[in-house]
Write a structure and sequence with these properties.
About 50% of the residues lie in helices and about 10% in strands. By secondary structure, it is an alpha/beta fold. It has two domains: about 180 residues, Rossmann fold (3-Layer(aba) Sandwich); about 70 residues, DNA polymerase, domain 1 (Orthogonal Bundle). The structure holds magnesium ion.
């Protein structure tokens, strides 16, 4: 990634939003597919759980629904396959079955480059936060085991904190609120899923897409991502440049 690409993405963001500068206090990280290499397992388990109940959700399509609530995903597929939404009972059963399958999967590894990036973010004086649609009970423990001393519980946003979930901006707006009622230009988002990017863009924050899955880059860029990196490692490698360019006020002719 060259400096001009990074610089242009910042200038375009400022122009589009009519902001003068970005004054970074926090970075909000999505969890699955960003911090953990867990999406392969999720996609496979969604496919198997739906099939168990006679519904067809190909694993590749599961990536397009990433970030949506379980109810939302199940109803979209149910409507398409059967012409009506699922009952509350069915939703509970399918989601429980999917959760059971997921718990049998080997624990997902840290995404390569994620921990190193988090350490760099912290060393820059910026607070890393997690904003996830996940509601797994062991989530905090897993984060603390894999990323020791990085995250503070009171700054986390999970499925328990929101009503609507992604693609609604609610989770990221909640993140800004929890961080002390920050403005969108005081934070930014790292996301891997189209619906997550959509939520982040709608929150007004500078949105970094990392394409860690099988979708084409266009699926993330079309939702309005300000910049795209091919991996978390690539974002990690470019952190210093990105942070310097974010911190430096753009020259007047750019605005
Ligand atoms: Mg994700």
């Amino acid at each position: 990634m060259n400096n001009k690409t990074i610089s242009d993405s910042i200038i375009n963001y400022l122009k589009k939003r009519n902001y003068q500068h970005i004054c970074l206090k926090t970075v909000m990280f999505d969890m699955d597919g960003v911090l953990f290499d867990s999406m392969k397992n999720h996609a496979r388990c969604w496919n198997e759980a739906m099939a168990h109940y006679g519904l067809n959700l190909p694993p590749e399509e599961a990536y397009m629904h990433e970030g949506r609530t379980a109810t939302g995903t199940i109803n979209i597929i149910s409507l398409r396959e059967r012409g009506h939404e699922a009952t509350e009972e069915e939703i509970k059963e399918i989601y429980a079955y999917k959760g059971m399958l997921f718990n049998q999967c080997p624990k997902a590894e840290r995404m390569p480059g994620a921990y190193e990036l988090l350490l760099k973010v912290k060393a820059s004086g910026v607070t890393p936060m997690v904003v996830t649609g996940s509601g797994q009970k062991s989530l905090l423990e897993r984060l603390q085991t894999n990323f020791p001393s990085i995250f503070r519980e009171e700054l986390m946003v999970t499925a328990f904190d929101v009503k609507k979930g992604k693609p609604d901006p609610e989770p990221y707006l909640m993140g800004l609120k929890k961080a002390g009622n920050l403005h969108p230009y005081q934070s930014m988002v790292v996301e891997n899923a189209p619906l997550g990017v959509k939520a982040a863009v709608a929150s007004g924050c500078f949105t970094i897409a990392v394409n860690t899955g099988p979708l084409p880059d266009s699926a993330l860029l079309e939702e309005g991502a300000d910049i795209l990196f091919p991996s978390m490692q690539a974002l990690c490698d470019n952190w210093q440049t990105l942070f310097q360019l974010l911190s430096a006020p753009p020259t007047p002719q750019h605005l």
